[in-house]
Inverse folding.
């Protein structure tokens, strides 16, 4: 596996030279792409340097151990340090998801449970917004359809990061969140204190960096305009500012009414459409690839129940990794990093196993 390090070190040097060229920065899209790759390789360069240094230190200590017992005492500690450095480098050499550095568009939809499901959709949105704030990310509410009790039947939010390292990208962490989230609690509408089980669906799409990435023929679009509406369907606008975009070849439909301007709603709708088309394109490629190349954690089945939030027990449980903790109150306030870390670690271990089997 370490045979590829030399090639990556050389690529790192080449990128360093390219990024020193002012002409590169005149093209923002290219500059962004090169900076992402440079940041990713910089972690490997640093880890490789630490590993080679640890190997040299261990070899020197073993050579001197026969002459000085003090060096012999250092050997076990240096062996442990070298093994840890080797494991860190090994994990960094796992082929990374090329979309890890992308921002995301997340859609949270009410499922089984009616109003309670819509209320939980609002709770999940709040959880993700607080998590984004803890990471220094920015959030932008793109679209929402409110329920009568103040929840969301459907809400879409864009989450953005300024990080250059793909490992710190939004997609790198939140790509695992797609699926069905199950909540067990006493609903606000329950008068007898009975615990109900409801579900809320989450979809996560990597956002297109540049519109040119996804080519959309205007002739493939049907665009309808209508008046925006609020809870219960009542009109909240006197002009046809809401927009519904239908991509005829795929049947994908995107509706936007959050903004008062038809132009702004159309721009937001096109952002979401591009993200969905990119996701569809990637799913088709994944379906054509061998099963070994697919993530065993982030499956393609969006109907899969991935997590349970049990409020009476203050318990959070992820069904894919077996992760369980009794700090649901903190999780709902955005402290979801340990849950995500368990998914990232499981995904890395699955990829390492695939590499070892090749």
């Amino acid at each position: 596996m370490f045979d590829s390090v030399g090639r990556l070190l050389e690529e790192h040097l080449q990128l360093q030279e390219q990024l020193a060229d002012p002409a590169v920065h005149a093209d923002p899209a290219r500059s962004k792409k090169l900076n992402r790759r440079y940041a990713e390789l910089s972690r490997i360069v640093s880890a490789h340097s630490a590993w080679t240094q640890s190997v040299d230190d261990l070899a020197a200590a073993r050579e001197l151990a026969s002459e000085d017992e003090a060096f012999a005492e250092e050997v076990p500690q240096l062996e442990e340090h070298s093994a840890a450095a080797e494991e860190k480098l090994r994990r960094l050499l796992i082929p990374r998801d090329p979309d890890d550095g992308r921002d995301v568009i997340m859609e949270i939809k009410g499922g089984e449970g009616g109003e309670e499901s819509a209320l939980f959709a609002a709770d999940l949105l709040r959880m993700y917004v607080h998590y984004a704030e803890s990471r220094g990310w920015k959030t932008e509410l793109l679209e929402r359809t409110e329920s009568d009790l103040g929840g969301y039947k459907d809400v879409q939010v864009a989450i953005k990061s300024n990080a250059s390292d793909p490992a710190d990208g939004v997609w790198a962490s939140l790509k695992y969140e797609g699926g069905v989230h199950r909540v067990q609690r006493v609903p606000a509408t329950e008068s007898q204190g009975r615990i109900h089980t409801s579900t809320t669906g989450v979809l996560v799409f990597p956002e297109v960096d540049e519109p040119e990435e996804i080519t959309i023929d205007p002739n493939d679009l049907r665009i309808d305009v209508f008046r925006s509406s609020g809870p219960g369907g009542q009109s909240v606008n006197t002009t046809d500012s809401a927009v519904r975009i239908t991509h005829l070849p795929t049947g994908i439909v995107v509706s936007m009414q959050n903004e008062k301007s038809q132009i702004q709603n159309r721009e937001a709708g096109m952002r979401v459409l591009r993200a969905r088309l990119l996701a569809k394109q990637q799913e088709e490629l994944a379906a054509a690839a061998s099963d070994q190349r697919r993530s065993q954690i982030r499956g393609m089945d969006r109907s899969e129940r991935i997590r349970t939030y049990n409020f009476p027990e203050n318990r959070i449980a992820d069904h894919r990794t077996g992760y369980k903790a009794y700090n649901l109150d903190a999780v709902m306030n955005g402290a979801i990093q340990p849950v995500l870390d368990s998914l990232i670690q499981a995904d890395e271990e699955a990829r390492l196993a695939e590499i070892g089997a090749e």
Summary: Residues 290-296 have pLDDT under 50 and may be disordered. The chain has two domains: 2-92, 104-290+299-351. The chain is about 45% helix and 20% strand.
